[in-house]
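Review box. Two proteins, two foldings.
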Amino acid sequence: MALTDYDIQRQIRHMIAFIDQEASEKAEEIDSKAEEEYNIEKARLMEDQRTKISETFQNKKNQNELQRKIHNSHVQNAARLRVLKAKEEHMKTLVEQAHQTLERLAADEGRYKQILVGLITQGMFQLMEDTVVVRCRNSDLGLVQSVLSECINNYKQLCERNINIAVDPENFINPKIAGGVELLAQKGKIRVENTLDSRLEMLGVQMVPELRDILFGINANRKFRD
């Protein structure tokens, strides 16, 4: 049975409708898949950016914290240095005051004379030489000469040996020191410095830790003590 033109046209319309339906469904599928991929990619990009922002924020936070610690450390070190400087200045002031006290002591001839006896006698025992030369300040020359006999007697009584001791009348020690003497033996090769300033310095070195504790309190960070 032959198809009429009407039947042919109807089949063609049916095929076109089927093709349109298939194309529409395929387009919807493509759109849906594209939308899904878009949403996935968008979520991924947003998560990446969120992670980068979080990392940047954390890095900035860490940098700020580090800078804060460095700044605090600098401030603390500067304050510590100022405290140490103030302590050193105070210690220097005490030493200067002690030196002034020694100068006043040397101005008291009666007391200073006995101090010279002790300093000279002690120097003789340190040297234990048969011949000793004493040097002093120019202003103390007469006073030192006046006590030599007492020093010799003290030396002989304690160590039972003779000694030849004399004051150098030409060479003197620094007139700016508070007082005291220097003793020389074997043509100056051996010397004992027994000035008031040297004794003060020696005492200061020995007592600095104790003085610091007395003046400024015990250092809690100090692990070892003499």
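Next protein.
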Amino acid sequence: MRRLFHRYRIPIIYVTHDQEEAFSLATQAALLHEGRIIQTGSPAELTARPATSWVAKFLALGNLIPARVVRSRPMRVETECGILPALAYSPSARVGKTGWLLLRPGGGVLRPGAVRKSGGIRGVVTDCSLRGSGYEAVLQCGLVEIKASADKPAAIGATVAWHPQIGQFLCE
């Protein structure tokens, strides 16, 4: 279908609840929630810069942790797992603002032991399973559960430090 859509260059509105199908066919997409358009853009734009926590959750982009902005430049947010660096694409992300920190499971570094630099999260491994060519570890950090990708299996019960890529602060 994708080849047909592009070959004939006819605008097509295609409605589906299947995210994989939608993103494989679309050049532009609109995400609707409760009858309202929440965000529009290319599939790449929607996954790279979700506008809200609902979009991030709907697209299963990663860990969403309650956060509060404690510094604006460079941005730092306070979470149950510590103070972490963040990016924000919304002008309303000011000091004192509460929202969500989106931390993607991939791209970070998982190591045994304590956090050695700022921006790291210390947690206890509660589960670890093979996912494709790597592993997914589930960490407990206070009341927050975090999924983190790892190159090697992590022992259940072990205390580890995860240094994720910089997160994105979402106001909603």
